[in-house]
Structure prediction request, 454 residues.
Amino acid sequence: MPDILIVILAVIFVLGIAINIHELGHFLVAKLFGMRVEAYSFFGLGPRIWGFKRGHTDYRISAIPLGAYVKLYGDDVTAPLEGGSSDQEKVPDSELYELRPRWQKFLVMLGGPFMNIVLALAIPFAGALMYGVPSMPAPVVGVVNADGAAEAAGVKVGDRIVSFNGIENPTWEGIRDEALISPEREVQMTVDRGGHMLPLVITPKKTLLDGNSIGEIGLLPDVGVEPVEVGTIKPDAPAAASGLQPGDRVIAFNGTTVRNSQELSSQIRENKDAPAVLTIERNGERKEITTAAKLDDDGVYRIGIGFAAANISTRVPVGLGGAANFAVESNLRILRLTGKVFGQLFSGERSVRDAGLAGPVGIVQIISKVVTELGFAGLFGILAVISLNLGIFNLLPIPLLDGGQIMMLGIEKVMSWFGRTLSLALREKIQMAGLGIILLLMVFTLFLDISRFF
Prediction:
């Protein structure tokens, strides 16, 4: 299948599920309360261009490719964005959205973000049940990259990190995350070296990853001894040209025994493009293969291999409780990182260009990279992240978004205490202003996406 077709299908799969699970939330809650649903657009806003009708609901595809929507009878505030109604049937008052109590409207608005968050939790939960959760090695340094930030800070192999950026007893995941969002910023750390506590200052090197600035500290954990097996080989990469094959087990690199895949990756990076001899085992027979790494687009030397699933020994089977805990922690980790990055934005510590904000082009790029490197199975991880972000974004108090609708319900409640109401005309103007804000955000993020090419 041509690569472009694979990418198109991947984008439709990820965005189609993330957006429609959101609209399904609105749809199901409305149906639960007996509200009549006029239209469910699976794709697009505005006038209907194709569809079919089941019961009272018109399931359709619409003209403006900006998401999807569910339109309820009696909810005419966003009518200009959702096309006109073709059904002139008199709808009973009991089925009209507008005549329902505010608490029911609130739950309808909450249904979309709720379903997005449920999906974001369900994907890592199912993955943990099927494959287990990653085992977390102790924060003991196993590899210090030459000329890296860790070497400059004085970190040594065997050091145990007991504090990193104010976090006591950090995990490797926490250390990596803190470094990731701190490029070229001094970070305080403390290591235990032979029973002596040594305070150090490390400055993660600024590295570009897919056009975004991240921090790299240049060290890896000591994960012990693991089999290092070649899982995948990129076409036209040095590994393919040298004759490496999936299933080959790497025993040594330039005569030095390889303990694990992280150590091999570090050796390849440090050897750069100099010729290297890999000692491998293939079908019980040892061979020596000569290869040379090539500089990738992100500035890292690689030979173009992927390792066979960090060899299942790095994942630990868990039950329902462990899987649920892993799902919650995975999502909280994303929210914490996002919150810290936005905090840096507002405090002036990070520029908008370096914040990693992705618009339409950026999202397509991310999906394209994931499906190319990991296949369709890898899309579930990015689907969980996009679904979580979509759910949280929709809770922002911006008119037209669910959070804006909830905010307007609150304003109407306060106004009702004084015998006042918001007119339909004013609500329509507020919603159109919200549309303007969202379009400006899209244009801005699109500008950031395009600027990264240069």
